[in-house]
Amino acid sequence: MKNKLRFDPQKSLIELKVLWLVVGVFISFAIIVALIVGINSQITPDYSYAGFNHALVVFRVPLAILALIIPIVALLAANHRSEQTKEQIRVANEQNSFSNYYKHIEEFEKYLNKTWNSKLHTSSPRKLHKALFPNARYGDFSVPASVWDSFDSMVTRFVEQSTELTACSKPDQNRILVEMQSTVRKFADSLHLTSYAGSSGSGVTYDGVQIIVQDGDIKLFVSQIQKVAHIVNEACSFELAYEPSETLQQVLDIDFTSLPSSKVMQEKVKPELDLSKWLNAA
Asked: What residues form the membrane-spanning segments (predicted)?
């Protein structure tokens, strides 16, 4: 019932059911009052000017009720115009948001091509855009907190695994390295990131899963978390108002060049590669 009586901005005034309902109610009320007045009055036919004047006096109340229809219809018309104006503004804003959204995507792709040159670090710039700016369609071009929550969780887990890696015996290295790669890959896949891990080096296998440790150096393997941080930071920097999260900045500030190399499966992992020390110091 409520929907039937609403002021549909897509319809003209005379097509509105609420208009005819109001008019019908007042006409019906005026007719009822006129019948009551007519039944209870001594009325004789008189078609002279005196008769018409007398009729106006007798039926003054029902005529006054009918006269109320005019200002009420005017109010309904004004409200209907207001609804139409709001709808026009809504459509215009929606069209602007739609245009801005696709312009944002277009400029984002240009930015990535310029920043990363020929080597894109994503399998799909548009999917990366959607992951980083999920509310861009509605005019919100900020990176949501969920992205940073996911990044923080990844870093926390990766750091815990690096601590375990530096404390483990050589037979456990493969398992932990595979688990660390899985931790990074899960986050990277959520943003459709690529080219963050080494593509050549020593193969490490555990439970049927094989990963590559670049140049067989665990330091280079561990540093991929900084590579991911750089990729995310560069992509998010497209927005001028962007500020890196505290955790992201800490990862970016780690000086991996000062850390010692540690060959996979040839020795116990160097304790300096326990990232918990460096993140706490960053």
From this structure: 20-39, 59-78
